[in-house]
């Protein structure tokens, strides 16, 4: 079924070397042993010969016929993952999020491993054919599931990932400094721009993302403290790391995959990537407007109701995501020793605009 | 007639029953008594004929955030590896 994906070369050292995201590295012999064990596990659950499926550098996926086994990133913690796998198996998420083959979380050479049905991902070779409408509908359906309908879940990924991605930047290049400076302008947990932080730097489970005491909209005017979505976010589900790689077609229908960041939180963060791409001028306006319209038509309310200006809700997540995407891409470019390309420059230009807009906010007289 | 402002020569035109004196040098216009009211009346008749109902308010434009740049997009980037990579990866 994963016919769109080429089987990678057998030498795993190429995939874990310095060419990728460079999040985690470990000795090649360790990854060889891990892959051998994963192959055996996959063949035990599956119905075909085991093959390694290319994915991001901190994760290993091995397929055997109709199933895949996934070794989660080295930093993954067992308890939140178990809660998330259990939630993915819950009937309330059927048809929205891919359910696991088993709710059991195995440990293979120190790595947490889960087992899933195999599906066909979106073809990266044909980005114009990406199923934006299907994705929008799935996110809307996910966001409509009340968190209380599921077993308890940890907070969704999103806000924490931004700071973590920027923290991985090593260089002192002007680009890296710009990204750090822009992050510091954003009222995110743990940032100087957020005087109302919770201790510990991250929102309490299910809490609304802490921001300035008076929420600011894009113009710096007081925001919409009474808006429904902001306060309802506590009871909302969010995927936590949505992008086009987080969809597979299984049984003829698209479903969301990768529950590693699934949890409670502000679902507007799930729209943050396309919103940031659009704002940076990378995603065609027609694609963005179609995605947003499909999301709202399917009942999605993370960006306000139909007809509302979505940006009071999307500004902060999309700005934070722009910073994260810029950080990740310049990190990649710097590690590969190549100059920044047009896409990366567009992200940096947008960072500069964000910093300017946010600093203008801070400089505005209190209202 | 001389222009009260620049002393230039004023020429008289007649348009729809309204006398208009325009200075040939500074282009200033002089209206006789009641001619401004006549013009206002003609204007309101015209707009009633052409806009019998008040125009509907324009739909809200929620195009783009102030901090973004979609009006001068980089849509030629579509085959760039970094864009495809970003679209599909964490």
TrEMBL record, chain B:
InterPro entries: TF_Znf (IPR027392)
Residue segments, region Disordered: 44-77
Superkingdom in the source lineage: Bacteria
Biased composition (Pro residues): 53-62
Domain Transcription factor zinc-finger: 2-40
UniProt name for this protein: Transcription factor zinc-finger domain-containing protein
Native organism: Streptosporangium sandarakinum
């Amino acid at each position: 079924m994963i016919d769109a994906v080429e089987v990678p070369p057998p030498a795993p050292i190429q995939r874990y070397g310095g060419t990728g995201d460079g999040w985690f590295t470990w000795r090649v012999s360790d990854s060889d042993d891990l892959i051998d064990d994963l192959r055996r596990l996959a063949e035990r659950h599956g119905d075909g010969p085991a093959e390694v499926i290319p994915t991001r550098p901190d994760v290993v996926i091995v397929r055997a016929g109709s199933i895949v086994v996934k070794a989660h990133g080295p930093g993954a913690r067992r308890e939140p993952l178990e809660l998330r796998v259990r939630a993915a198996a819950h009937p309330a998420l059927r048809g929205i999020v891919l359910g696991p083959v088993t709710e059991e979380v195995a440990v293979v050479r120190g790595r947490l491993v889960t087992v899933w049905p195999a599906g066909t991902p979106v073809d990266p070779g044909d980005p114009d054919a990406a199923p934006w409408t299907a994705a929008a509908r799935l996110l809307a359906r996910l966001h409509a599931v009340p968190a209380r309908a599921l077993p308890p879940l940890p907070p969704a990924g999103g806000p924490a990932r931004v700071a973590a991605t920027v923290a991985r930047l090593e260089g002192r290049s002007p680009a890296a400094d710009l990204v750090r400076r822009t992050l510091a302008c954003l009222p995110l947990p743990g940032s100087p721009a957020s005087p109302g932080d919770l201790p510990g730097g991250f929102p309490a489970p299910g809490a609304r993302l802490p921001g300035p005491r008076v929420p600011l909209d894009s113009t710096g005017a007081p925001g919409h403290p009474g808006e429904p979505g902001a306060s309802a976010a506590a009871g909302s589900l969010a995927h936590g790391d949505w992008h086009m790689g987080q969809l597979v077609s299984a049984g003829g229908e698209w479903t969301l995959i990768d529950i590693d960041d699934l949890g409670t939180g502000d679902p507007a963060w799930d729209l943050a990537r396309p919103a940031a791409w659009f704002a940076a001028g990378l995603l065609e306006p027609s694609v963005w407007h179609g995605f947003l319209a499909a999301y709202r038509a399917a009942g999605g309310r993370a960006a306000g109701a139909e007809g509302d200006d979505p940006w009071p809700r999307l500004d902060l997540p999309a700005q934070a995501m722009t910073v994260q995407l810029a950080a990740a891409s310049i990190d990649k470019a710097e590690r590969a020793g190549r100059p920044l390309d047009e896409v990366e420059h567009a992200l940096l230009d947008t960072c500069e605009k964000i910093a300017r807009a946010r600093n203008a906010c801070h400089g505005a007289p209190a209202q | 007639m001389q222009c009260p402002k620049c002393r230039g020569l004023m020429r008289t035109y007649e348009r729809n029953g309204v006398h208009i004196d325009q200075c040939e040098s500074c282009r200033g216009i002089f209206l006789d008594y009641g001619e401004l009211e006549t013009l206002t009346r003609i204007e309101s008749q015209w707009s009633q004929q052409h806009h019998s109902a008040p125009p509907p308010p324009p739909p809200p434009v929620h195009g783009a955030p102030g901090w973004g740049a979609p009006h001068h997009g980089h849509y030629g980037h579509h085959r760039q590896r970094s864009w495809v990579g970003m679209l599909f990866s964490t």
